[in-house]
Amino acid sequence: MISKKLAIDILNVGLSTGADYAEIFYEDSSSYGFTIENNKLETSHDSVNTGVGIRLLKDLQSVYGYTIDLSKKSLLNLASTLAASFKGERKIMVEKLKLKRYKTISPIAIDYNDVSKQEKVELVKDGLKALDGLDQRIVRTYGLYNDNHRNVIIYNSKGEIIKTNQQFGRAGYQVIASDGKSMEVGYEMPGTQDDINFFKTKKDMKQLAKKAAKVALQNLDAAECPSGTMPVVIGNGWGGVLFHEACGHPLEASAVSKGLSCFAGKMGEMIASPIVTAVDDSTIPHAWGSIDYDDEGIKGEKRILIKNGKLTKYMIDSFNGRRMNEKGNGACRRQSFRFEPTSRMSNTYIANGKSTPEEIISATKLGLYAVGFNGGSVNPTTGEFNFGCSEAYIIRDGKIAEPVKGAMLIGKGSEILHKIDMVGNDLDLAQGMCGASSGSIRTNVGQPTLRISEITVGGRGGELK
After folding, report:
1. What is the 8-class DSSP label of residue 19?
2. What is the sign, positive or negative, of the torsion defined by CA atoms of 324, 84, 66, 435?
3. Are 155 and 97 in contact (CB under 8 A)?
4. For 361-397, what is each residue's pLDDT tens digit?
5. How far is CA 313 from each of CA 85, 112, 307, rounded to the nearest angstrom?
6. What's the predicted TM-score (pTM) here?
């Protein structure tokens, strides 16, 4: 903890050589997790992460440093070292700091620390029971669990103190199946900013384990996916990772402000089909990516990025916003005090449309139904991407037919947005971790079932017939 008086001293040292903004980011976080391999508790960890990051801004320059030594001498030395990056006269003097008060959008009824480790282990083990004797081709099972506490205090030269306290947890399963010739993996691990009852009442742990097993076993028998240009129906929930990577990252100010985004300079233009509305919303109660205040002390908000096909907003942090003549809009995040913050997503999704999933499938004579994804890459400057599908099926005559494996979706974000010709009404969100320059952070991806009229599909199964 840093006293108010010491915080004022640190800020003023940082501002002494002409910086126009100074910020102290204090973090005290802890986590607990374990892995159960083949019904045996294999690894566990208890960790604590405490430290301070200091950021100074001057016009379009930024300097950042951090320390785990929280002594007065260390903190003042860090501020002085960073201030030496600038050569000028003081512009700002901080005289007082005032705490911002607010009501959290994700209150926790039961603290994770008040739940015994044994209870957490038994919760995950209970789900693994569903795999006992399920199929002899299952060669390895993993039960996974992690919970985190993150306490943050931000002091800045605007005279503000912002305190946030978050708790979040994840639990799920990874299943590996083999037929002696090949090996396939299934994975399910939902997350929440709710308490542990989320995994007891809102999730069925046995069904999660079975779902992971289903994907692994199904892909053992599945044929290789055909290749070519074809209609692709993308399932709800995890299907949103395609928008997150191919379109979400290019809408972050870290890329837009430098002209390194395919969507830079296109505010107000039609960048998608008129039936597409896309949102990044930090304010969903208990959602995996939600925040009360971002990691530079700006209140989280609901940002409508695309409305009826038109680009309406970027995700902006204050520093990159300077290049854009825009204020930060609560989209500045970081993994920990060890990272300088920048614009990042929170809960990013394509909003509901008017079609039902059944209507979308039945309207597709021949194509691919992509349900799950297992990684890929994207170039934010061009929007070009490729994504592997972990679960996919052929659509024949408007019906979901045989499963296929090895499907790869290849395209350009700015192009596929225009080719979305049907959007479902079954929006769902899925939890993941997003890595970028400010570290790995919690993000939700999401969408309803939707159809892309045509996209390049890579696969080793020959031509689709």
Report:
1. -
2. positive
3. yes
4. 999 999 999 999 987 778 888 889 999 999 999 999 9
5. 33, 36, 9
6. 0.96
